[in-house]
Amino acid sequence: MLCYINYKRVDKPLEIPNLEVEIGFGRGDFIVKLAKERPEKNYLGIELSQISVEKLMKRVEREKLKNVYCTRIDAYWGFFLLFEDEQVENIYMNYPDPWFKKRHHKRRLTTPERLYIFARRLKTGGEIRIRSDNREFIDFTIETAKFLECFEIKEGILDVKEPLTKYEEKWLSMGRTLYRLNLKKLRKPKEVPHPTIEEVRELFPVKVKAKELKAEFIENREFKLGEEVYFKTFKLWEKDGSYLIESLLSEKGYYQKFFIQLKRKGEEFVIDVSPFSEVLRTRNLQRAINKVAELVESL
Fold first, then answer.
1. Average of per-residue pLDDT across 106-135
2. Is a pLDDT exceeding 70 seen at residue 163?
3. Helices 112-121/135-148 angle, 10° precision
4. Which of 210, 205, 219 has the alpha carbon at shortest distance from 272?
5. CB neighbours of 274 closer than 8 A, spacing ≥ 6?
6. Which of 83, 149, 189, 265 suits a disulfide with 121, CB 3.0-4.6 Å?
């Protein structure tokens, strides 16, 4: 398996034994150090930054590490899609964004629905190990952990002899206090409502009869496909009798941008996701294709 994992293409759940996960690996210092110290373990880093992913990939190749992987996806959806329950041995969060403003607290990594899915995928006896320089974030996380009723909670001041991240190096030189929080899973977490999406094996093209396409009926349309599921079309392009419609699908907070292709065959249009679009195949993505087909058929 290559270092980079394209979560849209791989079979799920991932089959990587002895797996530990770092959420938000930044420069990759921490995950690389762990991989070197424990070659018998496998490490997966989850990041949103493409630059961080590229830097880690180059470093892994340069240092010839065989037990480090990474993927670019929101952490919640990464855990939801890629792992099964009781699969991950330990989870690391080093200085996650505390989102200081109260209206932004819902973006924190340790909200009930996020911590719930992390706990589900974590093996019983495994730990979520958090480092932070923000006491309020630590307190927020402790309250969430207590709410889930599945953790043994241990907190304290971080005693760092060797800084492992660029932030630790900077903050220690400034004399700032660094905190550690270990959440050891003892049992299944209390059930919490959480976002879900349904992946399917195949997307099926739709054929409809239509004499012509009228851009004004297809461009810049927005539809509600279900509870917290929205589909929007943007600009329509035409070339040699084929069309592409720029599209956006939001499913419970999971976003996909892609193109839907409309290709004429005789008196029909064949409507499908463009082969040049990388998508996660979900049931609502099929519904988006069907919605475009309805628009074309109604012209």
1. 97
2. no
3. 60
4. 205
5. 244, 258, 259, 260, 261
6. 83
Query: What is the token pair recorded at 180?
Result: 């550690």
> Among all chains, which residue has been given the structure tokens 């480090």?
68
Average pLDDT, the chain: 94
Residue 166 pLDDT > 90, yes or no?
no
Task: Report the alpha-carbon distance of residue 267 to residue 205 in Å, rounded.
Answer: 16
**Active site amino acids:** 97
Mean pLDDT, range 54-80, rounded to an integer: 97
Q: Which residues contact 187 (CB under 8 A, 6 or more apart)?
A: 124, 149, 150
> CA–CA separation, 46 vs 283, rounded Å?
25
pTM exceeds cut of 0.85: yes
43 bridge partner residues: 20, 68
The answer to whether the Cα torsion of 118, 123, 125, 131 is positive or negative is: negative
Which amino acid type is present at position 27?
R
Tokens of 100: 């200081």
- What's the N-to-C CA distance of the chain in angstroms? 47
In sequence order, the 6+-apart residues with CB closer than 8 A to the CB of 114 are 75, 76, 108
Report the alpha-carbon angle 218-199-53, nearest 5: 90
| CA dihedral for 182, 188, 280, 248, sign (positive or negative) | negative
Q: Identify which of 165, 182, 19, 28 has the alpha carbon closest to the alpha carbon of residue 95.
A: 165
Question: Is the CB of residue 233 less than 8 Å from the CB of residue 246?
Answer: yes
